[in-house]
Every structure is written in structure tokens, then in C-alpha cells.
Amino acid sequence: MTRKGIFVDDADLVYAETLSTTGELDFEPREVAEVAVLARNIVSEQPLIVAIDYRLDEAPAGLQSDQTYKGSALAQHLRDASIERPDHDFALVLVSAESKIKALYRPDKTAHDLFDRVYVKEDINKRRAAIRRELISLCQGYEKLRSVGNKYDILDLMAGTEAERPSVDVQEIRTKLSEAAAPHVAARILFTLIDRQGPLLDTRNACAYLGIEPGDGKTATEVMQEAGIGYEGIFGDAWPRWWANRLETWAQDVFKRRATGLPASDRARLLSERTGREFSPARSPWNKSPDELISFACASCGRGTELRHSLAAFDLTQPRYTVRRRICWDCIQTDQYEAVEPPLAIDDADRELAQQVKGRDRGSDGVAS
Question: Phi/psi at 26 (nearest 5 deg)?
């Protein structure tokens, strides 16, 4: 059965078709009306997902000037209604032509946690197939969240085993889920685990842990799937993630010691020998050496980097169950970390060192002097 979605825009209703997937998800276009009336009409139709354009106030379509509003105002009405009828809750995404909107409406910013995802129209045109998969995954996730009747068990939602319980069945998560009044609140908690590194790793961080180049991600994905490391819980079909504890256990068997205690060159060689695939060692973004103890992906550029050539990123809303993000020295010296969306900030504890890095000579042999 085709799932029902609603797309609200004041002018560009063509995106309703762009976001739809034949036979799986059909977005029906809706024009702007008085906010309370429109919200009631949407809720009455019981969709599984609603996409809202941010600038609903540009072409008011008959509304009085004092009745116009932005997409966030409609979203607030819809979320309030969901608290009253959690069994009819639905995914909510924001669509905008403005790239800066991602920074303004990050789900982890408490003041703007109305939306499950935020999409820029340019990205939708470039990544249409991937974003369509994400929208379908949101629908499937909300179907699961609706079905449990506000009784959210984190291990069940994440399809984890008892081996994963210590990393996800923690007090902070349990408390938040027990207080979740509707599926969209539970979804927000799950996306915190998906969007941040901690019990789950994205492919770039998994590659860094294995000491290989991020360009080998496709091959690494095949290997990790065969090893049963993949996350198969809610939203995992569109946002591929890897269980950190399973990866650590598997890597221990491959390397016969803690993975990040070996130079990347040794890890790549051992991984190639074990799997019969070809892997290239991750090279430090700072000195290009394949012999550094690469441990994680830079939060700015995504390349594998090492503790000694990286700095802590400031993160006001970091949960205790996630891993702190770090920025490689190369991105610090080139200011690339300020150009990502949303921009990163250096933690005050490392600010003095950051100034030293900006003026540091990498040396003729590629090693920081």
C-alpha cells in the first residue's frame, strides 16, 4: 500500500512529485491557508509524513499580511496536535531553498527540534534517490514507533542484542524514552544516536577505526555486512551505521590487538590479508603519513585522523553516551572547519593550541615541527 505524505508550499508545489516514490510514498500538494485551519486539515488526513517549505510567507495566497507565517509556525501546531494524538503522529521534514537553514534548524538544537530532517532544494535535486529512500525510512520508522503505543524499548527499536545493551540501555536514554509523549520525541532520541558517533558509527568513522582510506568505504561496507556489524534497527536502512562494539570485537580478531594501537599501514595490510580485498591505509591529513595511529574521522573533512594531530570541537548539546567530535590540524590550519554546514567551533580548552597550529610548519619531511 502506498504511504500518504503531504507537501505544503506557497508556490513551488512541483516538489510534491519530486519527493514521491511510485508505489511506496505519494506526497499530495497543499497550498497555504490560515495556520490553525491548515494544521487541523492535515492532522485529520492522518498522513505518515509531512514536508513543509520554510518560506510559506512569500506568496500569501489570499492571506492577510498579519496572517502569514513561516514553516516552523505550522510545524509547531502539528507537533502540538501529535502530543494529543500520538497514535496518529507523523514524520515532519523542512524543505528550503536556503542552505543556511540546516544550521538554524538542526534537530539537536532544543529551540528548533520540530523537524526530523531538513532538506535544501538543491540537495533534493542532486540526491533525489537517496533522499527518497530517507523519506520512506522515516515513514517506516514512524510506523514502528506508532505500533508500540508509547512503550519504547531502546534495544527493540535498535534491533540490538544483549551485547549492545550496556551501550544503549543507559539511564539517560531510558529516562528520555520513558518521558516521550509521542513518536516524534522518540525519533529525536534515536536520531541522536544515528547522527552522532557513539554506540553507532558512520562509515567514515568505521573506516578510520580500521585504519583505511574513506574511499574504501564501499568495500569496507561489504566486509562489515558479511561480518554482521551492520545496524539494522529503526532508520538504519537509509542511514547506514555500524555497531561500535561489534566492530571492536571483530577488529580485535583481525588485528590480534586493539585496532587503534596499530599504525594505519599495518591495519590496512592485515585487513587486506584477512579479507582478500585491497585496502589503502589512511594517511594523516596533517603529515600524509600512513603510519599514524588513525582513530576517528575528522568532524570537518571526514578524513581519518589521529588524536595528536586533532583538536576538540565545542559541542554544547553532546549527550554523555556519544563520542566527542574532533577536528584535524589540517582543517584547523586551513580554516576548513568554519566552512562546513553547520560550522564547527573549537573548544576553548584547545583554543590556544589552535592558534599554534595555524602558524605551525609541517616541516620538509611532512612532520610537524
Answer: -120, 115
